[in-house]
Amino acid sequence: MKKVDILTRVEGEGKIWIDLKDGKVKDVILNIYEAPRFIEGLLKGKSYEVIPHITARICGICPVAYQMSGVQAVEDAFGISVSPEVEKLRKLFYYGEWIQSHGIHVFFLHLPDFYGKSSIFEIAKEDRDLLINGLKIKNIGGKIIEIIGGRVSHPVSAAAGGFTKYPEEKELKELIPDIQEAVDLSIYFLKKFSKFRFPDGNIEGLQFVSLFKENEYPILNGDIISDKGLKLSKDEFDSIFLEFQAPYSTAKKCRIKGKEKYVVGPISRFNNNYEKLSQTALKVSKEIGLKPFEKNSFKTILIRLIEIIHSLEKSVEIIKSYKKPDEKINIRTKRSAGTGISEAPRGILWHKYSFDEDGKILEANIVPPTSQNQDAMEDTVKNYLNRISVGDINKMVFEAEKIIRNFDPCISCATHFLKIDRDLKKCRIF
Q1: Taking a C-beta distance cutoff of 8 angstroms, is the pair 400, 20 a contact?
Q2: Taking 60 as the threshold, does the pLDDT of residue 423 lie above it?
Q3: How would you classify the pairing of strands 10-11 and 14-21?
Q4: How is 66-90 classified by DSSP, letter by letter?
Q5: Distances in whole angstroms, Cα of residue 203 to Cα of each of 156, 295, 407, 418
Q6: How far apart are CA 65 and CA 62, in angstroms?
């Protein structure tokens, strides 16, 4: 038995257990043992108004996703429709998060694997401009979030019915030169990184699930589809996607009808909505030969860069046509229930709430993307290790951590480690 503390470039605390028999990997278990934070329980009895503020604390990297799914669930429950101007501003807000979150993952978490380095700072010793320009891309996403939301981490302006404060036109338009520079930099890095040697980290035997909208690459809302023909509304989510507790993990798993495994996130969005990418994102994707149907989890570094380009380009479109709304939020509460769904950087994020007549929360249910991807991570690690036939446990550990990072798991807001052990008999929740 060998225990090794590794994977310093993911958010949260967990452990992988690898069961070896006759030189083959028999089983892989992602033992997430981070203490549960009981957010759904904390919400009970509180006013609907706290949903965007409390749920944003689930993640410091993708708080906007939790806010947008949450406020849309409130609006669904109370029969509120927002104006096209608010809808556009919410998309811009969300694009800012995609840019920032993907930028963090691409340059700080994922890229060192391809350079054989321990961190971006080791790479920067040889290529300082890579770090500086990667930060420029990430930071423009943060600027968008800050201007709309009031601050970058856990923004404060999101609310059911709109925003509590709307940005001035001048504030947003001043971002355009920096956004356009970030587009050029992202295209440069996409072409540069497309020349990497990509191991065969294929995701096999799973459905690729994402949102779908008729005329746009989905982010804020939509129906749910898969590459196998699944199509349903957000209200049907919990009748088809069933959560269950694995005995070795504090994160719930989720499967289609409780049985079939699936994957969410950039690779699923890309495969299911490729032709709806922005003009530049689609053009450069074709230039580097990246197109559906892509299964290699290692190539998600390219897909995230493509989604950054898409988000930057769409952000400019929204900003150029932006007119500051003059809207007041007026909500009438009633005994009701509602659902909200959106595409967090890491995949589908679903919320469901029920309320009493005063708008107090009776029940809350939140299904984040990383728990949905737990099966996909376990299966892809197992299949990859058996394909490459690594006999040495240290090499096996090194390769396993790469696969996990391909999925950019957000186990929690903390960043640090995954532990690996060969002995499943010791697998337990700490």
Answers
A1: no
A2: no
A3: unpaired
A4: HHHHHHHHHHHHHT----HHHHHHH
A5: 38, 5, 11, 21
A6: 6
Q: What is the pLDDT of residues 99-151, one digit of tens each?
A: 999 999 999 999 999 999 989 999 999 999 999 999 999 999 999 999 999 99
Contact in structure between 324 and 167 (CB atoms under 8 Å): yes
Is the distance from CB of 344 to CB of 72 less than 8 angstroms? Answer: no
**Segment of 35-44, 135-144, 364-373 carrying the highest mean pLDDT:** 135-144
This prediction has a pTM of 0.92
309, two tokens:
């380009």
Q: What average pLDDT does the chain have?
A: 89
Q: Where are the domains of the chain?
A: 3-35+201-296+372-426, 39-198+318-335
What DSSP line would sit under 8-67, residue for residue? -SEES-EEEEEEEETTEEEEEEEEE-SPP--HHHHHTTSBGGGHHHHHGGG-SSSHHHHH
Q: Which of 56, 59, 34 is nearest to 43 (CA)?
A: 56
Closest C-alpha among 210, 214, 213, 220 to residue 82: 220
With beta carbons less than 8 A apart as the criterion, state whether 51 and 353 touch: yes
Pseudo-torsion of CA 396, 397, 398, 399, nearest 10°?
A: 50
- Average of pLDDT values for 209-215? 96
Q: What is the CA 58 to chain-centroid distance, rounded?
A: 13
What's the confidence (pLDDT) of residue 428?
45
| pLDDT score for 14 | 67
* Eight-state DSSP code of residue 229: S
> What number of CA atoms fall less than 13 Å from residue 30's CA on the CB side?
31
Residue where the block lists tokens 């950039």: 266
Residue type, 315: S
3-state secondary structure of 283: helix
Whether the bond into 293 is cis, omega within 30 of 0: yes
For residues 370 and 380, give the distance between their C-alpha atoms in angstroms, rounded to a whole number.
14
CATH top-level class for 39-198+318-335? mainly alpha
DSSP string, 331-372: ----SEEEEEEEEETTEEEEEEEEE-TTSBEEEEEEE-HHHH
Contact 30, 419 (CB under 8 A): no
Q: Cα separation of 320 and 316, whole Å?
A: 6
